[in-house]
Fold:
Amino acid sequence: MSSMWGNIVKISIFGESHGNCVGVVIDGLEPGLKIDFEKLNLLLSRRKPGGKLTTPRKEDDEFQIMSGVKNGIVTGAPLSALTYNKNFNDKDYEELEKVARPSHSDYPAYIKFKGYNDLSGGGHFSARLTAPLVFAGGIAMQYLERKGIKVFSHIYSVGGIKDKPFESTETEKYYDILKDKTLKVLDDKAGADMLECIEKVQKEGDSVGGIVECAVTGLEVGIGNPIFGNLESVISSIIFAVPAVKGIEFGAGFSIADMKGSEANDLYIIKDGKIKTSSNNNGGILGGLSDGMPLILRTAFKPTPSIFKKQKSVDMVNLKESELLIKGRHDPCVALRGSVCIEAAVALAVYDSIRSL
Amino acid sequence: MSSMWGNIVKISIFGESHGNCVGVVIDGLEPGLKIDFEKLNLLLSRRKPGGKLTTPRKEDDEFQIMSGVKNGIVTGAPLSALTYNKNFNDKDYEELEKVARPSHSDYPAYIKFKGYNDLSGGGHFSARLTAPLVFAGGIAMQYLERKGIKVFSHIYSVGGIKDKPFESTETEKYYDILKDKTLKVLDDKAGADMLECIEKVQKEGDSVGGIVECAVTGLEVGIGNPIFGNLESVISSIIFAVPAVKGIEFGAGFSIADMKGSEANDLYIIKDGKIKTSSNNNGGILGGLSDGMPLILRTAFKPTPSIFKKQKSVDMVNLKESELLIKGRHDPCVALRGSVCIEAAVALAVYDSIRSL
Amino acid sequence: MSSMWGNIVKISIFGESHGNCVGVVIDGLEPGLKIDFEKLNLLLSRRKPGGKLTTPRKEDDEFQIMSGVKNGIVTGAPLSALTYNKNFNDKDYEELEKVARPSHSDYPAYIKFKGYNDLSGGGHFSARLTAPLVFAGGIAMQYLERKGIKVFSHIYSVGGIKDKPFESTETEKYYDILKDKTLKVLDDKAGADMLECIEKVQKEGDSVGGIVECAVTGLEVGIGNPIFGNLESVISSIIFAVPAVKGIEFGAGFSIADMKGSEANDLYIIKDGKIKTSSNNNGGILGGLSDGMPLILRTAFKPTPSIFKKQKSVDMVNLKESELLIKGRHDPCVALRGSVCIEAAVALAVYDSIRSL
Amino acid sequence: MSSMWGNIVKISIFGESHGNCVGVVIDGLEPGLKIDFEKLNLLLSRRKPGGKLTTPRKEDDEFQIMSGVKNGIVTGAPLSALTYNKNFNDKDYEELEKVARPSHSDYPAYIKFKGYNDLSGGGHFSARLTAPLVFAGGIAMQYLERKGIKVFSHIYSVGGIKDKPFESTETEKYYDILKDKTLKVLDDKAGADMLECIEKVQKEGDSVGGIVECAVTGLEVGIGNPIFGNLESVISSIIFAVPAVKGIEFGAGFSIADMKGSEANDLYIIKDGKIKTSSNNNGGILGGLSDGMPLILRTAFKPTPSIFKKQKSVDMVNLKESELLIKGRHDPCVALRGSVCIEAAVALAVYDSIRSL
Structure:
């Protein structure tokens, strides 16, 4: 598996944080989509660092199309695109070459790749690699939109401060509400509190985690498969490619474990001539298949492991205890930028599942 | 994908709840393993219904080896095995053919398969299909044990009643503690409360959810891959094949979202000459790779959707509202039997990841 | 890969020559096909040994459906089927356990599987494993027939005696001509000569090779993919699963290497309002895609390696030269029974390519 | 499938003949290989057009490494590389947009991609796409060489003029003989005749086909798999990605069909303490596994379909008969440059098979 994913719509992600570029090949796209580049760049800009509360590293995420598009239209041949790396500072990582950054991939990657891997900025493990993921997901989203399917998300919590959750049976309305917001929250007061919390930890040289809630609306019934090709598996198989994600739950998720069947069961009703359910604790997925209700999931982001406090660690080359102080530029809360990555990953999973019917 | 899974160790699961049999083909096993059938059957018996608090349907889970084993030893050719279905009662399902059982796959499966699917007992969507999964996982476990890797789990919660969590840095000790227990809990008092809770909901004709916590110890450092082949994705891609699972989290999981980086980061130390971490909030996985700490994950099971209360539903063939009363035999808490399924799924994911290096 | 194959329609083949059974799981079939079992068994009977010029081993190729079919109709869940092994004589192989049979898999399989593989009758390498392939291919053929696509073949040559080749632009007519023939040849005189040749080598305790020519008619234009998903690759990737095949060629095949471009090029014409070509040296495939002309291919079968003459060989366990005299029952010309295997393999490749669009 | 291939070592090929670039991502390489770029470029130069008897289009096949290499050493992250397209002349194709070039992909590609595909120079179907294949194969070859495995080929025939075939039991000696030759033939007289033949057809505005014979020496015993993962299938699955290939045969290939078993069988002997065979009609592959003998295969190349004679064709947009005269620059015999593509493809197939053990 490694850095390729997909069944019919396959993607191959390449590049390193401080290497030449990061990029993606998307294989299996249907020909004929006129790509809305403005929309795509808007999506990419949500991932791009540089905001007040994101890393000041200016990543120029303008992707160059290398193949698969002619006159702005997808040809059906593999679509490849890349963006060159600029504005990074390898000096920030010089001292780190030997001392593993806590809660980063440095140490296991050093063992796996026998010391040959590119450690600067995390190399191929860097969150920079979500740029090609968002690019590919943005293309998938445009395909989905042609079918009336919308993928969107909000910041459900930051450091314990919670936004209002999606109302799970009538979810599509949030698309318009969230569309133009810079900070994707339903409750602006909660959003302000989140920002305050982030600023505070940032000043302390610390970071904080968060939860992203994502919805897919407009899905027809029966997408997915039994057993391994179930929608939850397919979505999870790509979601954890977003660094810092440590959990995923669908519908009522972990809280469903505390319920009784009579509370948890989503009862069928007929609404506007269609079969719907009166609640949506299953998050739109039954038996691994879409059931016609909004698909709802939440993912937990750990706090950015790169903090600006002295931390104990080990010199993994010489096998001795050490300390390190991380430099460079790092978001205090990756969940903020993570939301667009989740949307992209979910869009790819849903689009591939639809194409694999 | 559908009902096949794996990279080097591939499995193909087939069968229906009330069909001829359920079975599995396992392709890519290393030749030479002498299968410990007693151990394997012990594992299968944990999944097998029939206990006081599980469905009284007597599933004879004695698998017949159909190929790939000679004189009790794995040959390296595809290992196939199946167990015939007996002791089921199709009459229990006759009335259900048209009225979709809430929170089951009936309705989306009916749409996906255009009405041709076998609905009895859920057909190919049935939890009965976890029998071949546990069989295959049991084989994987025996391979892992040869490498000193142990996979085990406990019932972390039932209906809100919590067992003690695994201590996440020193986890291997629980293997022996749990090995011979019928009810896999660390705190027997909590276990007794869980059973009481289950009995209570059972009497009410209801069901209850639960959480299973699973650990893998003895993993070497560097198993897994960056981006899509990461251990979390590979594990999730098979875990959701276990029916009723609605969430998965690794290490501190969703609670990590509320932490600061300075709390969440697992600091490196040297212990007995090896690089370890002083905490294990990442659950043994960094950058998608095993980091030498115990791999810890939790999965949320929804309450069994088959309850014995009259429920509102719809006749999906004639598109009109209806009611149904489920008959048959169903566990009041699938999480109990689910724990061995989680172990099996995790063992397969870990074994395939090791083989794919 | 090993013993699983396919993109959307995936098959998993299991079993050994002298084991319990041989069987197959077919995953990804569209629901709703009413299987014509008579037709399927007729196809299987073409592969079945027992004829005058085939091995006298009576293989009962009556497959039992284990899952995926309800009331004779494909449900969409994995279709699994198997046939038990009977009428084999392990004593025939006892002496062979150590001495590798020339031109069989014995020696490399012994090394690959470290001596753990089942050698009797070739184990998982046996031509007996084409029974599940033909079963699966027969299902694929019935799907193709619903789309007006026919797959058929004839014995193009045996021991140098040649049948008339397919006329490659108007090929569909041969379907009816060949349908009811026991010996699939266009020129019955050539067929009689082939049989005479085979009888002669059989009396000598020898065997002889042959070539099978196969056609697919009714294919729409544009099936297949550029680069690796091309039709020739997909077909070849399954054809060599038929034991004894040592070569495959499409259209004019190897003879095209001697042509000039002006001879080889298939010029476009318009015929009955459709784009066709005036010749078909490319065998219906251009750039890896079907071009609307009959798909034509030929495969070379080596002579059955099991001959009844004393042969030099080596004791692979004790690494010393030896001799062996093969017993048992073996076809003098596997190409005869091979033709239906080629049809089955081609049908699967074409059906999967159509499903993967 | 489409433009991705491989099991453990996966490649993703992208680009178009007259687009921005052509390139490749190689996923699953072992870290630590110091790439010999001189050797790699030498290999690429064999594919590069520009020689007297190849197209005068000057393709600058200098690949830029985009990721996966640090200080000239493979890191283990996906290795991506591309080469920009220059020196093409789109005007040569303007007239062709509607009139399908005979024996090219134009017409079926137009149908498959609904007219959205890039037709210039064949777009993604162009032989230009073999540049990234040779790049990837060159990397694979360097890995194989570290294991003592050599992959090499010669031009076995051109327009019916035949070189001496490889002596199939003692084949490694040809590696040194061929290494420094510009025209890869064993018999220089035959080589001179081939060149004369090619010059003659070139003057006529015509082209000619050819056969490439390829060998792999130094393979250990037991590489490959039974059934679908057999070496012949794996090799074929990538060989037909080389445009113009219409057939492949292993060992004695099609001529084995005319043999008796007693002639065809490769008898085992012990030689220098190792098990070998006295002949090699099976081309080093038995039961899909390497048997310790040289792996030998031949592939048939059709004559370049682009000839400079007026040809009948059809206007595929307006569905009427037409004529066309191809301009541009095209090899009179693609087999010459094809030989290095075959080596590259075979090297990838063998390397992936070794890695997938």
Remarks:
- Chain D has one domain: 4-355.
- Chain D has a mean pLDDT of 93.
- Residues 154 and 185 of chain D are 5 Å apart (CA to CA).
- The first helix of chain D runs from residue 37 to 47.
